[in-house]
Amino acid sequence: MAVYAFTGFSLVSLLSFGYLSWDWMKPSLVADVATDPMEKSLPPAFARPPHIIFILTDDQGYHDVGYHGSDIQTPTLDRLAAEGVKLENYYIQPICTPSRSQLITGRYQIHTGLQHSIIRPRQPNCLPLDQVTLPQKLQEAGYSTHMVGKWHLGFYKKECLPTRRGFDTFLGSLTGNVDYYTYDNCDGPGVCGYDLHEGEDVAWDQSGKYSTFLYAQRVSKILASHSPKDPIFIYVAFQAVHTPLQSPKEYIYRYRSMGNVARRKYAAMVTCMDEAVKNITWALKKYGYYDNSVIVFSTDNGGQTFSGGSNWPLRGRKGTYWEGGVRGIGFVHSPLIKRKRRTSWALVHITDWYPTLVSLARGNLSNVPGLDGYDVWPAISEGKESPRTEILHNIDPLYNHAKYGSLEDGFGIWNTAVQASIRVGEWKLLTGDPGYSDWIPPQTLTNFPGSWWNLERLTDGLRKSVWLFNITADPYERYDLSEQRPDVVRNLLTRLVHYNRTAIPVRYPAENPRAHPDFNGGAWGPWASEDDGEEWEGIREPLKSRNKKKKCKICKLRSFFRKLNTRLMSNRI
């Protein structure tokens, strides 16, 4: 095995990065609270269903939090995690839609048909309508439910929208990637539209407001208008820190000495998000929710290393099944936790939040059989053993098959060319093409994309299609044991066969031209009626000659609809 050494700085120096903390009580640039409401209180009795705040960040790398030794300042997350329970054996999915679908349904993506890629803006696809969602179960339990932020679970029909899937209110984007200020999203050349929605309407009037600020302020308003006597669930799915790399200048200035430009912008976005979480925490205390609240923090997938993110010292990045793509930042902060201020190594997966939170809410799980998640609250709160012993990371039959995989390599029971990954106990197996497999140190000393020179790379394995790691002893996936332990490989392949027998067909329809924002007033939104299937005929693609002036046309459309909206609002007033 050939290994390229690091150049320019030592391994020890990389592992010794700390974070520059500042006073937790320093007035936040995000918060609009005039006085400090963070007062000490006695531990409450767990007498009523708790208020649940679930915070999901986008593309935040494993290394990109202060308590993991990052050079990025995250004092709020560090304190909340330190006072709660850090989840250091916590797994998510490698990309956006799969993580969100598994959170909302409590099911592996092979059981919802979303096992391949993401839901794209022009696809007639969404979270299957027969799935009973987490917010719907919480509504049944008497909760008020609200979503703020990124949906990315499909919107081609109105029935797919957050307000039809269990949320009383929604403010956010439907697609997976928008501008932080203008909320524009382009799904290819000339296919651009506005994507910020209030409920089921386009929120033209909110354009120009930085999304991290906007979402934190909306959470504060929700809390201010609700009674803490009644249980509330707020799902805060920050757009941050997904590309585009955009942040207010005052946050970038803090990292002016950071040589890597992408890392500097990314770090600013993380710190801005951290202060938004601080603002939300203040609001919980100010309006009387905190003492009976559970705050869950989770990332949605690994960091994108060429966009400033870092998963160091884990292998791989976003979009891969290496630990850098699927091991997430996670913690729970709550006065209701019995054993606080500790680190938990209990095995937890993002599907576990569904049964855990419904159980906390005293909801009924008997009518949702076949969940892949487990109730892990006893493991989190009391330090008991996790009921979970294995995780199916995924089986994706549509992903490009590995060139050197075969049924023969899979003992005649599994085609190792198929992309799949599973963890059973301390063992992790990968087959097919797991994705980009290098270890990338924090990009702090060079200018992007020059960070590739400080890359550690394994040059063997290019002709492989099976990897096996003892992930407990080797969390960085440096020692492939597939040849030494064929017995374990065969056992884990048998588990893949078992799961594959339960999989439903992949839902990944062709894109439909009817979704073009031109046909929806310049904004992304539902385009199919309730009676429409997944295929339409007779719909023309917008003419190329019109696309040449796309930007101008969209500006005119938006201006028209904004003026129209202003007039309508004036008439209402």
The SS-based structural class is alpha/beta
Can you count the beta strands?
A: 18
Highest CATH level, the class of the domain at 51-388: Alpha Beta
Q: Could you give the distance between the termini?
A: 72 Å
Major sheet characteristics = 10 strands, mixed
The number of helical elements comes to: 13
Could you give me the name of the CATH homologous superfamily of the domain at 51-388? Alkaline Phosphatase, subunit A
As a percent range, the share of helical residues equals 10-25%
Average of pLDDT? 86
Radius of gyration of CA atoms, rounded to a whole number: 23 Å
Strand arrangement in the largest pleated sheet: 9-8-5-4-10-1-11-12-2-13
Instruction: Indicate the low-confidence ranges by residue numbers.
Output: 1-45, 444-456, 534-573
The 3D shape can be described as globular
The fraction of residues assigned to DSSP E strands is 5-15%
Architecture of the domain at 51-388 in CATH?
A: 3-Layer(aba) Sandwich
InterPro entries: Alkaline_phosphatase_core_sf, ARSB, Sulfatase_CS, Sulfatase_N
Organism: Piprites chloris
Domain Sulfatase N-terminal: 50-361
Cofactor: Ca(2+)
Main features:
573 residues; alpha/beta; ten-stranded mixed β-sheet; four-stranded antiparallel β-sheet; disordered C terminus
Explain what this protein looks like in three dimensions.
With 573 residues, the protein is α/β, with parallel strands linked by helices. The protein has helices spanning 11-15, 75-83, 96-105, 134-140, 211-225, 249-253, 261-286, 323-326, 353-360, 377-381, 486-502, 544-547, 550-572; strands at residues 51-57, 85-87, 90-91, 144-150, 169-173, 184-186, 192-194, 197-198, 201-202, 232-237, 293-299, 330-333, 342-344, 348-349, 390-396, 419-424, 427-431, 466-470. Residues 1-45, 444-456 and 534-573 have low confidence and may be disordered. The protein is built from 13 helices and 18 strands. A ten-stranded mixed sheet has the order 9-8-5-4-10-1-11-12-2-13, with helices on both faces. The chain is globular, with a radius of gyration of 23 Å.
